[in-house]
Amino acid sequence: MGEFTGKVVLITGASSGIGAETALHFAAEGAGLALVGRDEGRLEKTAQDCLAKGLAKDKVLTIKADMCVEDDVKRIMESTITHFGKLDVLVNNAGGASPCSLTSENLMENYDRDVRLNVRSVIQLTNLATPHLIASKGNVVNVSSVCGIRVMANMLPYNMAKAAVDQLTRCAALELASKGVRVNAVNPGTIMTPIQFMYGHSDEQIRERASKTHPMGRAGETNEVAPAIKFLASNAASFITGETLSIDGGRHVACAR
Ligand SMILES: NC(=O)c1ccc[n+]([C@@H]2O[C@H](COP(=O)([O-])OP(=O)(O)OC[C@H]3O[C@@H](n4cnc5c(N)ncnc54)[C@H](OP(=O)(O)O)[C@@H]3O)[C@@H](O)[C@H]2O)c1
């Protein structure tokens, strides 16, 4: 018996990085899992890793879906409820960034893509999940970013999108508090996942840069984010809502000199 035995947790972006690690942490606590991603092979790998934590086969559901396609997002919620009959925790983790500035030629295209993936899909899925979360007195954890609080150069649409996720977290928390549903977010700094390699930098280069930009002198790892997500979703956080929790080695409090 684990802390989440009997609970159902839906995690988007579970095929990689922070989402995959978060799935393992909930699996270790006995949660039933609905795991979402586009890459079937990597999604199946996460599912197998969760089963290896001791979950019964019917406690892990994989859903191949593109968060940018409305019908796919609807199918995520329908499949989860058809399979498990309820939802206790929604982890809105899928996300991504398009390197882009105000003067980039493809600004509007990148803006539309980043907002659709990081904000619109989160609003849509949260909306669909809300009746089930009210029924279960459940909660939501959004995966935002230090970019929601501070501005990272050449990431204009992503910075804006993650700031919107932070404000959505507060809006939803306020709206759902009286219905017994909590809504929180985590704001990671540089965490060593595939998303970090989009500029073509090596592992060593990313770690070297992070050692200068993060006051704690290093990048973070997925197993430093997943426990915070699990904490916010747990009864230990029963009086916490509307919180955006930085997990960034102090990056958000730093100021360049
Ligand atoms: N790593 C960091 O430094 C960092 C820092 C701050 C915030 N974050 C946030 O953390 C979250 C997880 O990112 P990560 O670092 O774990 O990166 P990652 O390893 O690249 O994982 C991204 C996940 O999002 C999914 N995804 C992306 N686009 C999707 C789409 N259109 N439809 C469905 N799923 C989609 C991917 O699934 P498929 O590939 O299977 O489609 C993958 O599972 C993101 O919201 C990101 O913005 C990361």
From TrEMBL:
GO terms for molecular function: oxidoreductase activity. The keyword Oxidoreductase applies. Pfam families: adh_short_C2 (PF13561). The keyword Signal does not apply. Keywords: Oxidoreductase. InterPro entries: NAD(P)-bd_dom_sf (IPR036291), Sc_DH/Rdtase_CS (IPR020904), SDR_fam (IPR002347). It comes from the Eukaryota. PANTHER family: EG:BACR7A4.14 PROTEIN-RELATED, ZGC:101858. This is Uncharacterized protein. It comes from Strongylocentrotus purpuratus.
